[in-house]
Amino acid sequence: MSIVYVAYDGKWENNAYVDHKLKVLMVSMDKTCLQLQMQIAKSIGIEEEASKIRMLYNANLETSKGVEIENDSDVEMYLYLVKNEEEYKKCPIIVEIEETTIQYSEGSKDSVVALYVEEEKILTTTLVQKTKKRRFQEVEETETSSSSSSVWESLKREKENMEIITKGTSIEDLKENLIFESKEDLKEVLSMIAIKKKFQYRVPKSDKKRFMARCIDEKCEWYLSVRVYKNTTMYKVCTYKNVHTCSLEFSNPDHRQASSHLISKYIQNMLGDPKVEYKTNQVISDVKRVLGVTVNYQKAWRAMQNARDEVLGPASDSYRLLPSYCHVLKKNNPGSVTKIMKDSQNRFKFLFVAYGVSIEGWKHCRPVIVVDGTFLKAKHGGILFVACAKDGNNGIFPLAFGVGESENNEAWEWFFTSLKEAIGGREELCIVSDRHLSIANAIKKVYPEAHHGICMHHLKENLIKRYMVAGLHDLFFKAARAYRHSEFDKYMSEMSSLNPKIKDYLLEIGPGRWARCLYPRRRYNIQTSNIAESINSAVKEAREQPILKLLDELRKTFQNWFLERSKLAASTFYPVTTWAHKEMRDKLEKANCMEVEQLQTNTFNVKYNQKIFFVDLEKRTCTCRQFDLDEIPCSHAIAGIDKLYRNKYEYCSKWYDIMMYKNTYNGSLNPVGDKEDWNIPEDIKQEILLPPIYKPAAGRRKKQRYKSATETFKMSTKCGRCRRTGHNRKTCKFSPALHPYSKKHNTNEASTSCKAQSSPAAF
Fold first, then answer.
1. Cα separations (Å) of 364 from 450, 622, 659, 666?
2. Distance between terminal CA atoms of the chain?
3. Segment 726-754, tens digit of pLDDT
4. Which of 45, 197, 287, 543 is the most exposed, having the fewest neighbouring CB atoms within 10 Å of its CB?
5. What is the C-alpha to C-alpha distance for residues 758 and 761, in angstroms, rounded to an integer?
6. Does the predicted model carry a pTM greater than 0.70?
7. Which residues lie across from 23 on neighbouring strands?
8. Angle 491-494-499 (CA atoms, 0-180°, nearest 5)?
């Protein structure tokens, strides 16, 4: 092989070729002149039907353009000089292109007809030359005794009669001279024809040059022969005998041509929306209804996997494109933070994403963060980490999220470290989560200044699982939600009376982590991690998708939330949010029934139900402690405010102010666009990111979390006779066929016996 430079599309000045373009080719030493012409024509993109290529190379003669390459000997000499002579190593072949008109001389005995087939376009060129050498790879020698004009006319007729079947084309039946772009397209079309016409075939011969098919019934005359078309990658139907004489015993419902790959073509449009769950049993029923073919569960499942890979792309591609996705995300959303961590083998380990609008909006939310993790259901598994807060309208505010291999100390510590780098710290910060030990360890290490609160729902589950006592559920919630210490002590005493160990267990955990009245900082009304679990539920279906699709579904969900809430903020005309307005309005009726005694300018004694509460409007406190902890006027404070004819909205916290709410959703979350339009730097394109090594557990992939023993299940009974719900076969009163022990049967017997006793004939 020799390296050859090709100069073209330039001009001559004083026997020098200037302002030209340059190509570099690898040319074998045994190349003929016309093979070299073909290679050069292909490299510089000549597609005209009639073009003449003139090749020269400059030999430093200064009196001419150079030495012309006209035959095989000239090519051999040029390649020898390029390979062995130092001064010719970078001597280019100068290419001049001239449009020509092909003429045919009468009585020519040898004609060479070249037929080029490139993708879907057929280029035909007739070259007349008295030689028996092969000129191009797609050239056929044709010997004819007729004139050249008859050859040209026959070639035009052949071109007009050709029909090329491209990918995805549907035809009723095959016929001779059909051309397929590839063998895969041929097999797909043939399989569909076989399924529609209810016959099956076998393939006795299939290689790179030919494909043969016969009916599975050896006595049947149906036959197909296909060959490679003129040294191209396309296949032409040479022989097709469309006569079936096969027996009906070979017609089976489980068609051998109904492969999982073929079925996947029909179900791809059902997998576009991740919120629409398309199950394997639905594939079986749809294939039976549309194609009339019975497939087993395994084949339908494989078809689902193939279709998912076609629609969403392989899972490994998602990890490969992840750095590019993060780059475009940060570019389209200024201020966003994305981080990817890899192991020593360039395999994915952790991901962190925080949108710029979330980072800015967090400054206008209450300083309480809720974190949680949930498992992913995709091929490579993993854990989705979520951090969120509550806005001034008591809505879920997405703060950040991440993906990791599992819930362990390293993963949570990396997530919290990335979160702190993105959003910084806040005064009076409180973090709420379940009792996962890794979360507690990470908070102590990364956020030592924050208070770690426990979700009271998860604590209740653990408590009831440990102590199965009737009434414990209600007493615990009353103690956790109590505003006053006296109420808390009362409910703790009642739980202790049920079992003394309950109180010891709760005190060991620390009441300041779950009881509202003992919080060292304000948690407002955020006592559970439900808002984080709500985000997990919102993307429940997307958790089955590859990681790139998961990230885009999260972005779409948050994008819709930001848009809807910015519209809600713009349409709110109260000084506070609609939720804060409703909270005070619900307390107003109760406040109007209270007796208010003013002590000083801003202090009152408020009497209600034989109880007296002290309210200080200046300090914004009340002995009921609702005003203190929620920072919204309680009913007692509202009664005092009305006594002074003041504006109630002025006593709400700044977190509920409508301007704070508008600033929370002031920005917009922008999409990343189609990946074909991404403009990615080369260093990011070349970054290697492999999927993590994940060994799935035996059995079916888990899609639902394990239910705790204390969770209740509502089961509806269905009757086996009338098919109605709410009763069983024994208690059925609607079915005409009576069970011997059914209530209707017993009722009828009882009524019959009563009638018999009251009848005179019985005596």
1. 18, 26, 9, 11
2. 122
3. 778 778 877 655 545 444 444 444 444 44
4. 45
5. 9
6. no
7. 6
8. 125
423: nearest Cα among 351, 371, 349, 369: 369
- DSSP letter assigned to residue 724: -
> H/E element holding 496?
helix 485-498
CA 191, 197, 202, 205 torsion: positive or negative? negative
Buried-exposed string 595-604: b where 16+ CB fall within 10 A, e elsewhere = ebeeeeebbb
CA distance 596 to 604: 7
pLDDT digits (tens, 9 = 90+) for 606-662: 999 889 999 999 999 999 999 999 999 999 999 999 999 999 999 999 999 999 999
Which residue blocks in 499-634 are alpha helix, DSSP H? 500-509, 530-538, 547-570, 578-591, 626-630
248: which DSSP letter? G
- Beta strands 451-454 and 430-433 are parallel
Alpha helical stretches, state H, 218-275: 260-267
* Angle 353-355-356 from CA coordinates, rounded to 5°: 135
**Pairwise CA distance, residues 77 & 731, whole Å:** 102
Phi-psi region of 274 (alpha: psi -120 to 50; beta: other; left: phi over 0): alpha
Contact criterion met (CB below 8 Å) for 226 and 212? yes
Distance CA 372, CA 351 (A): 15
Q: What region does 334 belong to: left with phi over 0, alpha with psi -120 to 50, or beta?
A: beta
Instruction: Read off the pLDDT of residues 328-348 as tens digits, 9 standing for 90 and up.
Output: 999 999 999 999 999 888 999
